[in-house]
Amino acid sequence: MPLFKDIETIDYSQLVSWEQDALKAFIAKMENKEHLFPCIPAIQSFSLRHLRYAFVCCIGSNQATIELAAILKEFALNCKSYGKYTTLIIFFETPQSLIAKKTVEDFELLFWKQLRLLNKLDEEKWPQHIPEDPSESEWEYCFNGEQYFMYCATPKHKDRQSRYFPYVMMAITPRWVLQEFNKNTNYAEKIRREVRERIKNYDAISVHSALNNYGNKDNYEWKQYFLRDDNTELSSCPFLRRLSNQKEEK
Question: Any residues with CB less than 8 A from the CB of 196 and at least 6 apart, and which?
Fold first, then answer.
């Protein structure tokens, strides 16, 4: 699957109907001036054309894993040439039949299943400086030696509109992008406050308690990857199964 560079230069005639619809929905979300999307850095990245886009088949399938691994490997190799705010946007084919029978929690399980399957195709070792246990505050998802913050949106989110999208969508941001953003601490803190205020206006539910800053001792990145449509959360990270599987293989 091709990794598209610029949303404005994509030839829509090369896309199937759901891909066209996903792109149009994404553009509408980013460009809405009345209902401002909360993530200000995402808006900046979109405006500067630093985002990269790709389409993948149904989330959680073996084929989706193969496609996603190839795309993410290409992104990891070239991301530093895409711009300092770059993020990889993945749109998953999401049939109405799947949406009708799935809940937010079902999509949550599919999301974590996808990350576990993707990990199995990782050709690089897990970075030594990153804990393998998500219950440690410095853990985050890694692939091809690159550290990432993961964001997932689904068609079943309603009250938490900041996590709603008509198709399952993942936004994958390299850690170095976030480190660059945080270099100016005063500016970064100002933007974080503005983002939280936007969330309050954007969502019909309070800001989730899991939102925190990487590096804080009370922060767990995995909890922020997928926020439910209420204020509940999983008691433990499903990626822990990765550790269990490794022990079984030994």
Answer: 38, 207, 211
Structure tokens at 231: 């204020």
> Where does residue 189 fall: left (phi above 0), alpha (psi -120 to 50 degrees), or beta otherwise?
alpha
The strand ranges marked E within the chain are: 52-56, 88-92, 141-143, 146-153, 169-174
Per residue in 33-74, pLDDT (tens digit) is 999 999 999 999 999 999 999 999 999 899 999 999 999 999
Which residues, in sequence order, are bridge partners of residue 149?
A: 173
End-to-end CA gap in the chain: 34
The strand pair at 88-92 and 169-174 is best described as: antiparallel
In 3D space, the residue among 20, 2, 48 whose CA is nearest the CA of residue 166 turns out to be 20
- In this prediction, residue 47 carries a pLDDT of 95
Q: Among all chains, which residue has been given the structure tokens 């989110």? A: 157
CA distance 220 to 154: 21
